[in-house]
């Protein structure tokens, strides 16, 4: 059963009540704390089973940035997504949060539908991470023997399955699998299916994203498209060259966490892959080819 528990850290009682109600309506179990110190005491006391933590940037006793850094420095909590509420949306403040590990942002005054979409995205990221870790079974360890090969896939489900398999060729599979998943899914959705960034924003907010992906996968001019993955082991490293059949995109702006896009309900995948999963990641040509390199698993 997927965890629906959320930790809300907010010192404004009225705002805390509004957020609690809005998220409870979505089926979440919201637990609240009035400041960063109270939240940290709770986490240190062993109550850590949260799918996402939502915290205000400005709070008494312990502010949001201090709490964020403590969470990300704690191994048992580091993978829990953190959503920052802030009234200061200037680039420097947002960049500080992004660099500290807060990839989800909300501005005050809060928009309820955006709040729900952002929290949903964060929770889904957490559940995806858990599912991938649990499914990387012993049988896939044989993939560590692979030195070169080509694989082809078409759907998002196949991308997820292949990411778990390919990660076994890496020295740190649990770290690599997140980045592989992002790159392979991106090759399907934005590459072969041609869904633009602005299109996805509208679809995610409307709750129609998965339906649109399924619709495009069935279109006559798109259903035959495949993504190719070339795996190559070279000494201590393994590289993944991922090539889709799309028209490419302006990839430069997605390699880093952009403060201007921090408040969108998506768009973090490539930057997360580059910074967290691989030693090197580079796009080639028009953007329909990406090469990711990391250390290989031992034979």
Summary of the model, kept short:
Helices cover 41% and strands 19% of the residues. The chain is an alpha/beta fold.
Output the keywords.
single chain; 299 residues; alpha/beta; Rossmann fold; Heat Shock Protein 90; 2 domains; 5-stranded parallel β-sheet; 5-stranded antiparallel β-sheet
Account of the protein in words:
The protein is α/β, with parallel strands linked by helices and 299 residues long. The chain has 2 domains: 5-132, 3-Layer(aba) Sandwich (Rossmann fold), CATH 3.40.50; 138-295, 2-Layer Sandwich (Heat Shock Protein 90). It has helices spanning 13-24, 36-44, 64-72, 91-99, 112-135, 156-167, 173-192, 197-206, 209-217, 269-276; strands at 5-9, 29-33, 52-56, 82-86, 104-107, 148-153, 227-234, 237-243, 280-284, 289-295. β7 (227-234) and β8 (237-243) form a beta hairpin. α6 (156-167) packs antiparallel against α7 (173-192) and α7 packs antiparallel against α10 (269-276). The protein is globular and about 55 Å long. The two termini are 36 Å apart.
List the helices and strands and how they pair.
Layout: E1 5-9, H1 13-24, E2 29-33, H2 36-44, E3 52-56, H3 64-72, E4 82-86, H4 91-99, E5 104-107, H5 112-135, E6 148-153, H6 156-167, H7 173-192, H8 197-206, H9 209-217, E7 227-234, E8 237-243, H10 269-276, E9 280-284, E10 289-295
Parallel strand pairs: 1-2, 1-3, 3-4, 4-5
Antiparallel strand pairs: 6-7, 7-8, 8-10, 9-10
Helix pairs in contact: 2-3, 6-7, 7-10
Round the mean pLDDT to the nearest integer and report it.
89
CATH superfamily of the largest domain: Histidine kinase-like ATPase, C-terminal domain
Helices, by number, come to 10
Helix content: 40-55%
* 3D shape: globular
Q: Structural class of the helices, strands and pairings?
A: alpha/beta
Number of domains: 2
Percentage of residues in strands? 15-25%
Write down the Rg. Answer: 20 Å
CATH names the topology of the largest domain as: Heat Shock Protein 90
Q: Largest beta sheet, briefly?
A: 5 strands, parallel
**Tally of DSSP β-strands:** 10
CATH class of the largest domain: Alpha Beta
User: Could you list the spans in which at least 5 consecutive residues all have pLDDT below 50?
Assistant: none
- Span between N and C termini? 36 Å
Q: What is the string of helix and strand elements?
A: EHEHEHEHEHEHHHHEEHEE
CATH architecture of the largest domain: 2-Layer Sandwich
- How are the strands of the biggest sheet laid out side by side? 2-1-3-4-5
